[in-house]
Amino acid sequence: MRATQPYLGNRLRTLRMEKGLSQKALAGDMVTPSYISLLEAGERMPTLDVILHLARALETTPADLLGEDYRDVFAPHPSAPASGPSAVAGQLYARSLVDLGDYAGAREVLERELSQAKGRSAGDEVLELSLELSRVLAAAGDHPARLELLDEMLAALSGAVPAVRISVAIDRASTLRELGRFGQARDAAEELLSEEFLAEAAAPHERVRLLGVLVSVLCEIGELEDVERLTQELRADAAATGQHAIVGRAHWLTGMALVRLGRQQEAVEELKQAGSLLQFGSMSMLDWLRFCRSTASILLAAGDPESALAWLTTAEAAAGVTDLTSERMALLRVRAEYELAAGNPSRAAELYAQVTEGPEMLSGLPLITALRGQADALRGAGEVQAAIEVLRRAAQLYEESDSFRQASAVWREIDELRA
């Protein structure tokens, strides 16, 4: 089965009719009803932005819409050389696959192009491709592979201009956080804050990224003393960029920090400001998905499950256009949080078990968060001994990540349950 025009036309018509949509409704503001008619007749092949619009409207994936060989639609022309003097064609192809939600395909392309660039000793291309691959690995949740790549990049960038080296170093601190290596992430972030380059007027966006990493790490390990001051610096540096997207992310990060400080209503206000600046269409599909998921989680912590459900449902719909197991599992964790908040601890415990056990389970920071939630669900369902076992696992993970304050809090919780 190939992603041909007749196949796409038939598939498009079938899905539209199953959803009960008219051609006008499917067209929306993106195209005209007559264009939808031409697509269904097999007389047109849509551009990437139209494919993404159609997939979202039909609540399916681009791959399902185009067919099994959908990658061929965006691959470089077969008459072109597999690898020319640069890797531009491969990079563009990989970006198209990312837009389609095919991160595995993008990774395959970039790893091939990177290997060829290294063989040509093309230093600038190696750097560009490595940065592109790093972003794909982060999106795909393969943090061990990303850390290995970033370490390799930093070794090669020892004498490079500060802007590039520090940007990669911030990515590394973020990756350590995602791996649950909180002590190392905190130390790396605090060391970077002393870099002279980050004090320059040209680097507020990088300082915002770094402060975001440090704030989130401090919240996770329970070292909250400096969090409020750092979030104030974060918002001030974001405002200095003059970019709505960066300011919105600063409000988003502040909201997450305020939840950890127990100031839920203030967190909700920060989210409202973030939502006014971070609109769908101004962000990538993956960033929008994560913002919706995070918003749902914060609203649940603030005691507003009804509002949280709307954001969670939106995130689940957005997840339909990606092939990321990590995002699917992260959303399942938030769905478990919702079930617990809605008074269904047994169902929540079942959902938590799906993300804390098995080959596709969460890892690093998301796993620890899920284990804490799973223990709450088990306790609510009357399974106290099972809750203790889950908490013991969480405490051990905290200790392994040098988060001794959080580990002590969990051990105390275990003692209370035993009593």
TrEMBL record:
**Among its keywords, does the record have Cell wall biogenesis/degradation?**
no
**Any single Gene Ontology cellular-component annotation:** cytosol
Keyword field:
DNA-binding
Per UniProt, residues of the HTH cro/C1-type domain are 12-65
- MF term (GO), any: DNA binding
Q: Where is the signal peptide?
A: none
Q: What is this protein called?
A: Helix-turn-helix domain-containing protein
